[in-house]
Fold:
Amino acid sequence: MAEKTSGHDKVIPIHRKTLRLTFRIVNGEVGLISYERLGMICPPSVGEQPEVGKHGGFWIETRDDNDSVLFHRLLHSPIKNWVEVHSPDGKIRRVFGDAQESIFEVLLPDDINSKSITLMGEYLDLKKEGENRKEVSRELARFKIPEGEKGGNNERN
Amino acid sequence: MSATDGYIVGTTKVVDHGPDNLRWNLVIIGDGYREGELTQYHTDVQNFVTALRNTPPFDELFCGINVHRIDVVSNDSGADDPGCAGGAATTANTYFDATFCTVWAGTPMDRLLSINDALAISVSSMYVPLRHQVLCIVNSSKYGGSGGTIATCSTAAASSSIAIHEIGHSAFGLADEYGGDGTGTPAGEPPEPNVTRNTNRATNKWRALIAAATPMPSQCDGSCGASTCVAPGAPPPAGAVGTYEGGSYSDCNTYRPLPSCYMRNYQPFCPVCSGVIRQTLQPFLPAESINLITPSITFLNVPAGIGGIGVTTHRAIVWEVVSCRRLRFQITAGPTGGFGTPAGTLVSVSSDPILPVASARIWVSYTSTNPGDSANGTVTVRCVETGQIWIINIIANTIARPRSAVTLVLDRSGSMNDDAGDGITKIQKLREAANSFVSVMQPGDGIGIVRFNASAQRLMEIEDVGTAPGGSGRITAIGILNGTAINPSGATSIGDGVVNGKQMLDDAQVSTVPPYDVSAMVVLTDGQWNTPPSLATVSGSITSNTYAIGFGLPSNISVPALVTLCQGHNGYLLITGAITADQTMRLNKYFIQILAGITNAQIVADPRGVLDITSEHRIPFWICEADYGMDLIILSPVPQVIDFQLETPDGTRITPGFGGANSQFVISHNTSYYRCALPVIPANDGGSHSGLWHAILKLGHQSSEPLKYNRLKEFNPSYYDPKRAVLPYEFVAHAYSSLTFVSSLRQNSFEIGGVVHLVASILEYDVPLLKHARVWAEIQLPGGLTEYVSFSRDSNQKFVANYELQLPGVFTFRIRARGATMHGSPFEREQTHTAVAVPGGDKWDPNDPKTDDCCEWLQCLSEEGVITDQLVERLKKLGVDLPSLLRCLGERCKSKLDEIEVRQPHKRYIPNTKQLSNESIEHIIELVVNRIKGRLS
Structure:
């Protein structure tokens, strides 16, 4: 299990091994395209544990044998259907467009109790975006914890 | 347009707060930098690192962060810019294919600066596997950037804000806090910790930061008609965390913690976002530790001051601190025992921007009193943040000023009668320089004199020089130096001189109670040793500091042997080269510099000049608060006709007749000087100590007796020229100081192309001066040109530089330092070294003196019976008048022949006494002709 350290606000678990996962989303499908085990500290979760049925947005969870959530990592909208544009006048805006192939990385604790990885979110298929936007997040995909030090793996449960 | 458009140079860890597996690792890559622009890239990286560190809360978390810089060279400079907002389109072939005007939804976005993310990820993983975040800096001054797995920004002044904002998303999971029409806003509660739809203070996700008096919601967006937000009766106070409508791309019913935040408009991170960043980086922070490095402070053997004024010195109580937060150390009691706190009683320390460890220092001062006195006390210090308390013991004692015993080991071989290069004989130069040395020595120091030619004699045993002027030791020494005892003649046995000098110092240490604190030997020679013992033989027995001056050209001096002699005994060799008319007192200057080395004085300035009857020279020099005494010295053929005054930093004039216990003016044949304790005017500490001083020189009156320039005729006729009326001088300012500059020159090869290694250090109260100091060398080349070399710092906080000797001859290295003390006072220091390069220089054997074979050969020719009348006649037919030739050579080699004669008395050429064979005659003729040709060529 992870060590713990006293932060300014609360006790924070320290995970000294990290699993770096690289995902690809294309045509409404998500795949785990590579992974790597790293001997470095994994940044902790931030914020409250998001709940299915309550929260929107995207995040990734690791779960144990009992399907209990061990860890979550917030994702800043992994679907690449927008860009953020910064103007010299100090204004920031989002500009939406057609979804493009998206590749994103996630750092998760390399915890022996973790058995699966779930991608939580509102939708993957942007053709249904208007409809989906009215829904809260749900499980979109699930993956086995990959084995070995590094490699490619797109196996879904 | 890809990785084929450049190459990767390598990676550098520019911020190293610990092992990568324990820290949060930021990787920075560059795009659009050509090879010649990598230095600019390094600057741009540093600028970003500085910007990040200066952005709260990263300022207090920075010791948990490492930064790795990957140097990538692109074929072209800049980035693609299709000119979508007007202007000409430009294309740049860069490694990561950076481009502005990235097309999105069919529309080019002028400020959207993107790169090949997949390639950037691949390169980053390859070079820094343990990475948490990657940033690409693009070499363009146009404002732009983008987010995603790789944050991207240009070098425009505000573009680093884009990168920090985007890192807020990718590394810390923060949401955008700006509003919009709701497109992209999550349907449910946003999962990010800094935006919400919940205005209930009891269940809001950042409720811990919301004060009870803050209304909820705290502010509504009036422009949003569909909002259910109920505006508060009174707005919350500025800075109060609450729920402010607008965030996560929606102006309605979505709330942020404060009106402004980096995630909305680049303003400082709001408390909620700051807390998230802290929470994320908390596991990466090193454990806080505070270790007292100096459990006691000792002021051991502080010398009594000059003129009875105490010497104030400082020592620091030092803690080694590993912490990301600012820690304050406060003196809560003491110091007792009369010790001072010159830099105050409170010090704060923040984490080092680059290294994991910082030092906190509280300074304690002690002012020496009378020899034999001691003091002790304690000081209590508390760390304000942690509450830890330390009680530190302080002890101190005062001793008499360290005394030095010096033996001058002086060459008086026949060649010392030769011209030094400016029309004055070497022996006369030596007399003047040694006079200056003896005149400036401090009362209580001992002087002894050894002379050597073929053998050495002790002319004066070590004796206290006494008062200045007029001390008995001084008078005796000067009498010897000016007398016939060192008149030149004979050969050169430097080794015998060194043996006698060493023995003289050893004897003095036995016979003097208490023994001298420092013993030193100064060896002056103008030639190569040619009579045993060799320097290599005697060098091992020497225990004193040893300095040498090579008087003349390096080809005539036993350079390697003297270097070995000095470098092994805390000294150095200075070589004058030929004395030129514009540096006629170079030898004096070298003697005075060596005296500074012996007495641990610091050289503050040493300009030279030429006075005429109309000029007044104002020579500035800096004195700092760490200096407690100074000697201001004029070296001149006739110092008696120089009106020499000092001007304090507040403008007070100090003249020879100024009086007071802290200022003494001394004049002798070739030297005049002020010896001062600081402050010079005790009642005016602020105006007569630290600051910019001036030495003011003009020809004219000196002391109470008016001396005009035309009286030069009485003192030194060779400098009197009523038409020109000019007088050269050298000014040297020495400081006795707790700010010490030490430099050294090491030469491992004497060949042309050999490399000289230069090292310097600056210590202020024994602590390396880390900031506000630079060191450089002004190198005078054999041809007279000057080059400059900057020093860099090595890992031991020393300043280092290398220089290649590309010409034959003597190189003079004037190593200079300039900076500010810990109190901000300017200071200057300098020291001169010499190096030599000669063809075949590494074939010099210290134990095999190079002979002047021409003169030796002439000596053989002069042996009785070697040259016959037959030879004279044959040469005459060839147009060579042998007697005239030998007379001419004899004049050139007179001093050498004198030396030879001392070693092996012989008869001079007597013709017609013995016949030589024809073959021998032919051979001699050939030798003579070839030798003459060789000399002519």
User: Anything to note?
Assistant: Confidence is low (pLDDT under 50) at residues 702-707, 846-852, 895-917, 932-937 of chain B.
